[in-house]
Each structure stands twice: as C-alpha cells, then as structure tokens.
Design goal:
The chain has 484 residues and is mainly alpha-helical. Among the domains are: 254-328, Glutamyl-trna Synthetase, Domain 2 (Glutamyl-tRNA Synthetase, domain 2, Orthogonal Bundle); 383-483, Arc Repressor Mutant, subunit A, CATH 1.10.10.350. It is 47% helix and 8% strand. The protein has helices at 16-32, 50-63, 82-87, 90-100, 111-123, 139-147, 195-205, 221-231, 261-267, 271-279, 294-300, 315-327, 331-338, 344-350, 355-364, 386-394, 400-413, 421-434, 439-451, 459-483, and strands at 3-6, 35-38, 104-107, 153-156, 164-166, 174-176, 184-187, 210-214, 237-241, 244-245, 311-312. The strands form 5 sheets. The chain has a 3-stranded antiparallel β-sheet with strand order 3-4-7. The protein has a two-stranded parallel ribbon with strand order 1-2. Strands 5-6 form a two-stranded antiparallel ribbon. α8 (221-231) links the parallel β8 and β9. α7 (195-205) packs across α8 (221-231) and α19 (439-451) packs across α20. The structure holds glutamic acid. Residues 7-9, 41, 199, 213, 217 line the site of glutamic acid (GLU).
Length: 484
C-alpha cells in the first residue's frame, strides 16, 4: 500500500502554496488508495511555534483534509512531531550508524572558517564545496575535540559519483554531478538534525512511498537520495509540483494579496471553492471542466496530468468560483455560512424577521455574492424601519407618471390575501402590461418608492418578504406624500 506525507514546518501561518501541497498529497491518497500522513517538522526550534502548528490543524480541518496518521491521530510509525523524535533518539541512532560506517564525520570548523571558504569560492567564481578539512582528522584529534567544548556538527560525506539520476514523477530525469555537491550538515551545532537529514530518516522509517512537494525542493532531492542509499533504505518516488506564481508571474508572495489560508477563510471564501481552485493549480482534467465536487476530484485526479509548467494564482477566477459554489448551496446551508459575516447594522435589520424569512432573504440575494461578506451590501433593502425608509424616499424626485405607477401597484397588490413572490410577480406583470410592456418604467419607480433605494436585489422578493403590514404603512405614507 502506498504512503504519502504532508510535512509542514510550523514556522508561520499555513501558506496557500503549502495547502496546495497538502491537497495534492491528499488527492493522491484518495485516488491511489494510499495512507495520508501528517508530520510536523519543527526542528527549527527558534522559528517553530505551537500557535503555527495550531494554525496548520485549523487549515486542514477547514479544508476537510483529515490525516490517517499524525501527531493528534497517532499511528504505528509515531511520534509524528520531529522534536519528539529527537527526544526518542531516532535521528541519533541512524547518525551513529553513519559515523561508524564512515559515511559521516564530525566537523569542527567555525562559522568564520566556513564563511572564509565561501568567500574564496565566490571570488574564484566556483560553486562552494566544503574543503573537507575535518574529514581527515585522526581518531585522537576527534576524541580530544569532542571532549572539549568546541562547537561541532556532523557532516555527510558526499560519494564521489559523477552521475546521479534523480527520477521524478512529474518532470524528466535529472542528472546530478555529485562532485558539485558539498558535504552537508546532518547534525547542527545546536544538536538538532538538519532538514535534509531528518526528512530522510522520517521518510524511510515511516515507509513513505511517494514524496509530493513543491519544485523548490528539487535541489534537496539528490542529497536526500544519497542519504537513503547510505542508510540502506529504499528511496521513495519523488514528484515535484510546479510553483505557484502571482499574476505578474513572480513567486506568489504577500505582495499578491493574502497568502495565509486563514485569511481566505476570513475573507469569506468557501473551503469547497478553494479546494476546487487549488486542485487546478498544477493539475488539469482531460477536458475543460472547471467545477468539480470533492468526490469527482478524488476519482479524476491523476499524477500523469500534473503540469511541468508553473501555475498562476488568478484571484479573479477564485472569486468567480466562490460565487458558483455560493449559488449551489441550499438556502439553509447558505444562511449558515453567511451569518458569521453579517455586520451589526444588518443583523439588526434581520432581527425583525422570523428565522425562516431570514433564510429566504439571504437566499434571494445569492446571485450578487462572490464573497460571503458581500451580503452586507444587499440587506438594507429589507430594512423595515419606517423612519429610515421615509427619509430615503424624500431624497428622490418622482415624475407624475412614476407616481401613478407606484399608486397603481399599491392598489393592486393589496388585492392578494397573501404576499408571495408569485403573487407580487403577477401584480408586476399587470402593471408592466399597462405600461406598454416597459419593465424599466415600472420596476424603477416601485423600487425607489417602496424601498427607498435605486438599486438592489430582486424587488419582487423584497416586497414579498417585507410583508403586508410594512407595505401598507409605506403605501399610506406614499399616498399622502405624493398628493401633498
Ligand atoms: N518541512 C518541509 C517544508 O515545509 C517539507 C519539505 C518536504 O516535503 O520534504 O518545506
């Protein structure tokens, strides 16, 4: 059975690009029946914070990406948090083996020494390769230094291989000349394992079969493959996903707008829409369909349709997609999603309605909403306050023919014993016919006079929801106001 992992570092709030990596691992797991593992890579103790780890869980919960194994879920291959694996001695055990087999060595060079070497390489226009000054220390010299408090690291000795082929599930094989790769640190001077080392030990011991991650990790892959070989473990298949760019084709960053997943949630995106949108950032189906529910994505997703070229994050398209998902929600579900985004002024307006009318009001304006807070721009039409209404009406001018249209409407509409959208619509039709079929001539003055607004959601829905009592109060006001 295949096993994939999502391995974020909790050094900041969950980034939208990192979420795309999680999603592709998750879709892979759904499609190929693999186990999906969440591993927290928190070895950078200075930058890792529990609140960032919390933010990762929050993002995953919101997206509905639920791990089979992980720090909270547990599992046979735990612990799943690297700091806990350090305490358990997991990295040290493998490191001792590499040291014993002389595949790794202690390095006592100071930062100052190494900076000097780097400067020198730069000067000579050569790639930096560590001089291996410490590789040839005698056993006595090493013992003596280890007993002192000299700072030390453990480095991996890169084998002298001319050609290392890295096979990638997405792109063509890459041929690396190992002689151009510097020996790199496995154990840092602070006693913590380096990223390249801990990731290999964990991928190996957790039985990961496929590593799916961003293309920015390609340069790490030969190092990781060499370590796999040195440790005697079977390496996974690597798949490097194309980068996500902003619309100006530079790497997606804060400059392009929100990058944290929670920002998207707070801006009123639906997780279903973001899920669909992110799935199309680097993967495409065989046809031009763009809207997919989760189930069809899980069956259609395939690794052989992942693109080699970078994906562009088009916010306009995301907003459009969000609008599509909003429109597809059932009335009650839409109301539940929208309510947390309604501001106090509009909440006060909705408070004058019954719960079931609130659901109808929200549903009636759904076509105008791309982001959930957009609702706030459309609720004023449902304000039942007489004072607010009369003040607004007084700010408008009405021609005699407009006044007539309004009065005609008011006369006819009260013939209905009940206000339903069908009834109101029927009355509207009658008045439109009376006015030579000119809708604009009818709808506009009615909206201005009965709602006090020039624009807004469907007037038929508004009138039916405002109800008979409010309408009759307004009609009698208009009768007097127009004849004054
Ligand atoms: N912790 C690494 C990151 O967040 C994971 C890289 C990998 O998938 O190997 O970039």
């Amino acid at each position: 059975m295949k096993r994939v992992r999502f391995a974020p570092s909790p050094t900041g709030n969950l980034h939208i690009g990192t979420l795309r990596t999680a999603l592709f691992n998750w879709l892979f797991a759904k499609r190929y029946n693999a186990t999906y593992i969440l591993r927290i890579e928190d070895t950078d103790k200075a930058r890792s914070k529990p609140e960032y780890e919390g933010n990762i869980y929050e993002g995953m919960d919101w997206m509905g990406i639920i791990e089979d194994e992980g720090p909270k879920k547990g599992g046979k291959f735990g612990p799943y948090r690297q700091t806990e694996r350090i305490v358990d001695g997991i990295y040290q055990k493998q490191l001792d083996r590499l040291l014993e087999e002389k595949k790794a060595y202690y390095c006592f060079c100071t930062d100052h020494d190494l900076d000097g070497e780097r400067e020198d390489a730069k000067h000579k226009n050569r790639p930096y390769i560590y001089s291996r000054k410490c590789l040839h220390l005698s056993a006595e010299e090493i013992d003596e230094k280890l007993k002192s408090d000299i700072s030390r690291t453990v480095k991996f000795e890169i084998p002298d291989t001319k050609s290392l082929i890295v096979s990638d599930g997405v792109r063509d094989d890459i041929d690396f000349d190992c002689r151009l790769i510097s020996d790199f640190v496995l154990l840092k001077s602070d006693g913590n394992p380096s990223y390249n080392y801990s990731v290999v030990v964990d991928d190996a011991l957790m039985g990961i079969t496929d590593v799916i991650r961003g293309e920015d990790h390609i340069s790490n892959t030969p190092r990781q493959l060499l370590l796999f070989k040195a440790l005697g473990f079977t390496p996974p298949q690597y798949h490097h996903l194309p980068m996500i760019l902003g619309q100006d084709k530079s790497k997606l960053s804060k400059r392009h707008g929100a990058t944290a997943v929670t920002d998207y949630e707070n801006q009123g995106y639906l997780s279903d829409a973001l899920y669909n949108f992110l799935a199309l950032l680097g993967w495409s189906p065989t046809d031009t369909t763009e809207i997919f529910d989760r189930t069809s994505l899980s069956t259609l997703f395939s690794m052989d349709r992942i693109s080699k070229s970078n994906a562009v994050f088009d916010v306009t398209k995301l907003k459009w997609m969000n609008g599509q998902y909003i429109r597809s929600l059932e009335p009650a579900a839409l109301a539940e999603k929208v309510k947390p985004f309604i501001d106090d002024i509009n909440l006060a307006i909705l408070d004058t309605y019954t719960e079931s009318d609130v659901v109808k009001i929200i549903y009636s304006v759904r076509d105008n909403i791309a982001l959930l807070p957009d609702i706030n721009g459309y609720l004023e039409s449902f304000n039942t306050s007489f004072i607010s209404f009369s003040e607004k009406v007084k700010s408008f001018q009405f021609s005699d023919s407009e006044k007539q249209v309004v009065l005609d409407f008011c006369c006819s509409v009260f013939e209905h014993s009940e206000f339903t959208s069908e009834n109101i619509s029927e009355t509207m039709d009658v008045i439109v016919t009376k006015n030579d079929g000119k809708k604009g001539k009818v709808f506009k003055p009615i909206r201005k006079a009965l709602i006090g607004l020039e624009r807004g959601p469907n007037i038929v829905e508004i009138v039916s929801l405002l109800g008979k009592d409010v309408l009759s109060e307004r009609a009698s006001f208009l009768g007097k106001y127009f004849s004054a």
